[in-house]
Every structure is written in C-alpha cells, then in structure tokens.
C-alpha cells in the first residue's frame, strides 16, 4: 500500500465541493460561491481579441506589465494603498495566491490564526504548509481584535483576515482592521487579507489592512467582482521582500497565469464598472428576499453586509443541510467552515429570484 504525506492524507475534501458534486441536475444550488451572471461582454470581447491576435503564449511570470500597472492604479484608487507594479504577482486565481504565500511564510511549528467559522481553504493550506491551525472564534460573526490577541502565541506567523467574509458575509470596521494591523506590528506576524468580495458591500465600507502596516499580503481576484470564476485570474500585492520569495514558488507552481485571462482582466479593471454595480444591487435584492423569508420562519439570521452568503443558525447544521439536499436544495453545513459553526448552514444567494423563492418554500417544510 502506498504511503502519502500526513499533511495531505489528513485533509478532507472541501465540504463546499462535496455538496456541489452531490447536487442533482434538478437541484436548486444555493451552495456554491459563484456569481450566476455571465462574464460581461466587454471582458469576453477582450479575451476573444487576444486569442485572434495570437496572444496565447507564456507571459512574464509575474504578469503582463499592462495588467500590473492597471492593478497598481486600482489599489491606489479603491484601497488607498500605494503599490508599485513590481509589488504585484498575477496568479491563477486567488487560490494560487493564498497557496504560494503560505508556502513561503509557514514552516512546521508555526501557528496560523484563522477565523472560525472561516473559508475552507485557510485551514487546509495552513496544514499543507506544515503549520498548526488555531481557530479564532468569531463574535457576532465578526473577527474581534481582543479575541485575536488572546490566541496569539510566540509561534504565530500568519493571521487570515477576510472582509467581506465567506461564509458569514460580515464586513469588518476600519477600527477593527486597524487593530489587526497594530497586532501584526506588535507581534511581528503577517496578515493575509483575502479581499475577493471587496466590491460586494451593501452596508459599511471596505478597508484594507495594508493602509496601516507593511506586514500584509493583499489577495484579490477577478472571480467574484466580474463573474470570472472559471477564468482563474487572481493577484496579490506585498512589499518587495515578500514578492521575491513568493515569486520563487509561483514560477514552479504555475509559470504564469493564463495569457487570455490576463487580457480579459485588463479589460475588466480598466473598463466600465457599471456591471459591478448592477450585480451588487441584484445581490442586495436577493439577500433581502431570503432574509425576509427566513425570518418569517423564525430562523435566526444576522443581516450580512457583504458578499453573497447568509449564515443562519438552524440547530443541527449537518442534519438540516442533508434534509434540504434530499428535497433538492443544496446548502453547505456550517461544520465545513470550522468547529464553532455546527449549528449553522451557509446559503449562497448567487441564484435567481425564482430559484430563491422555490427554495424558501422547501426550506419552510424543513425549518418550520
């Protein structure tokens, strides 16, 4: 029998992916974190043009200069962060950006602080890198600086911050983000700030911790903002000392991001942002429909201020998710996101209003 490394063998398949793979063709899928809108036409046109003019070869490893320059301007405009093009690596999705950062930062024996509940990749990538995962319980579905401080150890190397968050849809305040930055300075660890939902905010504002400290890796992607999940185009920004080491991993893992996806992302970042605003308002309407329906059932569900997820408390999340799946509604049990959320399920409202209304009717049979 073959022997595999413990760091991989002990990792389970993503709970999100399990539910997605189990979904029947007639199921209403409220489980996957993927916008259901088509990629905007001007972005697709840029990709087609790139193919037709033969832009299909390797690009510079860290990304094409035009895209990195556009991202540098984007960081200053949208995040109030001064980042040079040389401080940016274009990656194959935010997933690769997270992976190469962890591979360069974390060694066996290092502690990694992750929100609990938090996105499923943080724990798995920490273990693959050899780190020890320390779950930080959320307070009212938010990462609390005082609770983070209580979990810092002499071996703490990384803190994951995700605002707006997956799975909760929570948006951290400027005061909280600044407090995380101060902790990173005081205890000399690195914040990995996952900002892929930055433009999907309904109340509050998006604040990047890189405004307050250089001990930050800012990770983002075109996936959620421009409905480009399958294009696999992400990027990270950090100071030169980080970039030098991250690029070593990137060049052997991926060589470069897709040339065509980079051309599309350039059109996305530099083109009209009306598509983003339109998508956000449609998500807001869907959120409100779901919230109203769940609350009429008596389900406890805080209002998410960002992303496109609800995280209601339903009792036994595993049982409820299973019963809903049997009736054709796919959600994700809270246990997929950590040990402190077993009473929850995650519901994605990246689905049509008609499907959401149908799903609410079925949920009423299970939750009432």
Write a structural description.
The structure is a single chain. The chain is α/β, with parallel strands linked by helices. It folds into two domains: 6-39 and 274-367, Aspartate Aminotransferase, domain 1 (Alpha-Beta Complex), CATH 3.90.1150; 41-270, 3-Layer(aba) Sandwich (Aspartate Aminotransferase, domain 2), CATH 3.40.640.10. The chain has helices at residues 6-9, 15-22, 41-52, 65-79, 93-105, 120-128, 145-151, 174-187, 240-253, 259-270, 274-296, 317-326, 353-367; strands at 28-29, 88-91, 111-116, 132-137, 156-162, 190-194, 216-221, 234-237, 309-310, 329-330, 332-333, 345-348. The strands form three sheets. A seven-stranded mixed sheet has the order 2-8-7-6-5-3-4, sandwiched between helices. Helix 8 links the parallel strand 5 and strand 6 (190-194). The mean pLDDT is 95.
Keywords:
Aspartate Aminotransferase, domain 2, 42% helix, globular, seven-stranded mixed beta sheet, single chain, 368 residues, Aspartate Aminotransferase, domain 1
User: How many beta strands in the DSSP annotation?
Assistant: 12
User: For this structure, what is the CATH homologous superfamily of the largest domain?
Assistant: Type I PLP-dependent aspartate aminotransferase-like (Major domain)
Number of helices: 13
Radius of gyration: 20 Å
This entry's quaternary arrangement is: single chain
Helix content: 40-55%
Overall geometric form? globular
Tell me what portion of residues adopts beta-strand conformation: 5-15%
Q: Strand order of the main beta sheet, please?
A: 2-8-7-6-5-3-4
- Report how far the terminal alpha carbons are from each other: 49 Å
Q: What CATH architecture of the largest domain would you give?
A: 3-Layer(aba) Sandwich
Largest sheet, strands/sense/barrel: 7 strands, mixed
CATH topology type of the largest domain: Aspartate Aminotransferase, domain 2
Question: What top-tier CATH class of the largest domain fits best?
Answer: Alpha Beta
Low-confidence stretches: none
**Mean of all residue-level pLDDT scores:** 95
């Amino acid at each position: 029998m073959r022997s595999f490394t413990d760091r991989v063998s002990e990792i389970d398949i993503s709970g999100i992916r399990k539910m997605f793979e189990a979904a029947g063709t007639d199921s209403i899928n409220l489980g996957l974190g993927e916008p259901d809108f088509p990629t905007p036409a001007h972005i697709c046109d840029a990709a087609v043009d790139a193919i037709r003019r033969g832009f299909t070869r390797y690009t510079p490893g860290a990304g094409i200069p035009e895209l990195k320059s556009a991202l540098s301007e984007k960081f200053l405009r949208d995040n109030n962060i001064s980042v040079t093009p040389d401080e940016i690596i274009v990656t194959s999705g935010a997933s690769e950006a997270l992976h190469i950062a962890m591979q360069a930062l974390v060694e066996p024996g290092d502690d990694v602080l992750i929100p609990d509940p938090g996105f499923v990749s943080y724990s798995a990538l920490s273990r693959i890198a050899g780190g020890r995962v320390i779950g930080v319980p959320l307070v009212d579905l938010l990462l609390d600086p005082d609770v983070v401080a209580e979990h810092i150890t002499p071996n703490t190397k990384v803190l994951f911050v995700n605002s707006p968050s997956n799975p909760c849809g929570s948006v951290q305040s400027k005061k909280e983000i600044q407090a995380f930055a101060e902790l990173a300075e005081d205890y000399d660890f690195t914040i990995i700030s996952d900002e892929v939902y930055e433009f999907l905010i309904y109340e509050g504002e998006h604040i990047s911790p890189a405004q307050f400290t250089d001990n930050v890796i800012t990770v983002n992607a075109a996936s959620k903002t421009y409905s480009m999940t399958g294009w696999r185009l992400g990027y990270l920004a950090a100071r030169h000392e980080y970039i030098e080491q991250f690029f070593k991993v990137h060049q052997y893992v991926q060589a470069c991001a897709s040339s065509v996806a980079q051309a599309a992302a350039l059109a996305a970042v530099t083109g009209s942002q009306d598509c983003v605003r339109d998508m956000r308002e449609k998500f807001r309407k869907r959120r409100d429909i779901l919230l109203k329906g769940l609350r009429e059932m008596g389900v406890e569900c805080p209002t998410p201020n960002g992303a496109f997820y609800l995280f209601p408390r339903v009792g036994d999340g595993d049982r409820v998710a299973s019963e809903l799946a049997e009736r054709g509604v796919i959600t994700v049990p809270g246990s997929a996101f950590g040990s402190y959320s077993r009473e929850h399920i995650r519901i994605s409202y990246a689905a049509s209003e008609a499907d959401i209304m149908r799903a609410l009717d079925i949920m009423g049979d299970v939750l009432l």
